[in-house]
């Protein structure tokens, strides 16, 4: 049975604690990487920069993400950005072109494809 703790506040992180989805404690560096990604959605950092920031190689970061989340760090980062973009799409009058360019996508079609994969 899943327990639902309610909606998070506007200032709360999507990664509120080191407690993992399955109840285990996330490694500190993985938790830090997730926080860095979430706090830098407007400036989209490279995986190398994130790995360096938490004291890991890119490969070590990738392995940690795969082991504890089942997805790559790039996918995790993109999903966080798409989650935020969904709010912008549904709650503002910004065009898809404006949102795509702000997110670093080369074309609105590229963003639309990723968005549809995330939110079928």
Describe, in plain words, how this protein is organized in 3D.
The chain has a single domain (28-118), classed as Orthogonal Bundle (Arc Repressor Mutant, subunit A). The chain is elongated and about 40 Å long. Helix 1 (28-39) packs across helix 2 (47-54) and helix 5 packs across helix 6. Residues 1-7 and 18-22 have low confidence and may be disordered. By secondary structure, the protein is mainly alpha-helical. The longest helix has 19 residues, at 73-91. It has six helices and no strands. It has helices at residues 28-39, 47-54, 58-69, 73-91, 96-102, 108-118.
Q: CATH H level: which superfamily?
A: Homeodomain-like
Mean pLDDT: 82
The amount of beta strand, in percent, is: under 5%
Note the main sheet. none
Gyration radius, rounded: 15 Å
List the domain count as a whole number: 1
CATH class: Mainly Alpha
Order of helices and strands: HHHHHH
Please tell me what the overall shape is. elongated
Judging by the overall fold, what is the CATH architecture? Orthogonal Bundle
Number of strands: 0
The tally of helices reads 6
What is the CA–CA distance across the termini? Answer: 25 Å
Which ranges are low-confidence, i.e. pLDDT below 50, for 5 or more consecutive residues?
A: 1-7, 18-22
- The class by helix and strand makeup works out as mainly alpha
CATH T-level fold name: Arc Repressor Mutant, subunit A
């Amino acid at each position: 049975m899943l327990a639902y703790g309610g909606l998070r506040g506007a200032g709360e992180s999507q990664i509120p604690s080191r407690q993992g989805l399955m109840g285990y404690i996330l490694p500190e560096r993985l938790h830090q990487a997730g926080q860095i990604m979430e706090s830098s959605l407007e400036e989209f950092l490279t995986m190398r920069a994130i790995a360096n920031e938490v004291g890991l190689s890119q490969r070590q970061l990738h392995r940690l993400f795969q082991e504890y989340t089942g997805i790559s760090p790039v996918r995790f980062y993109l999903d966080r950005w798409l989650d935020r973009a969904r709010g912008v799409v549904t709650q503002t009058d910004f065009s898809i072109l404006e949102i795509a360019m702000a997110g670093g996508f080369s074309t609105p079609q590229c963003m639309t494809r990723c968005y549809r994969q995330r939110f079928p």
